[in-house]
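Suppose you are handed a protein chain with no further information: no name, no annotation, nothing but its sequence. What can you learn? This example shows the usual starting point.
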Amino acid sequence: MKKISKILVSQPEPNARSPYFAVAKKFDVSLEFRPLIEVERVSNKEFRKQRVDLNTYPAVTFTSRNSMDFYFQMMEEMRATVSQETRYFCMSEAIALYLQKYIQYRKRKVFFANGTFEDYKLLLLKYKPAAGRFLVPCPDVRNDKLSTFLTEEGFDYKECIMYRTVNANLSEMDVNQFDMMIFFSPIGVQSLFDNFPKYKQEDRHIAGFGPNTCVKIEEMGLNLSLKAPIPEARSMSASLERYLASL
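A reasonable first move is to predict its three-dimensional structure. Written in structure tokens, the prediction is:
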């Protein structure tokens, strides 16, 4: 395999305290952070076709900051009222605190889990009787486990598609300059080939985070050099450090 000197990390650049930078310094490699996908809000016309009255849902679920951003953007576009009585159910405390960008944060109206789906289910079940109708802002392509759970438990809810994931425009990027590429989602892998249909891996290293990403990498005919996470390294930065040390 090719000696690694430059790595593409297909995510937004993290803050300066990120362990990625310590890994790069330790092994004298260069990192370029660049998302291969972008998120965009659906048009007002597309939203109206879903026949959702945003004023009629006293409870809203948020599993990501994206879902929150596009929910409040749509509230503004549709001139809906942000009620002080609305209850917000967030997957994690970090997502809950992000609410301060849009509302006066009140703990009695904001509830959050510990970041795991199992804890999130317990949270929703706890407040199901009092919360009433739930609105579930979501992307066009999503994991159905939340809607499956809500249906099985008899929640009164409505999924509302508010945003979609699209390929980033990578036309100005020289993809062959990277000795290694790190992917974090199947659609990120697909974006590579949509932007560069003739891409050949040759002796370059490919890393994937998560089982679905790794499956997609192999489906596209690429050789997977690094699969993460593993029990000994739960993050991609830790997995990358172990991999570079092994070369």
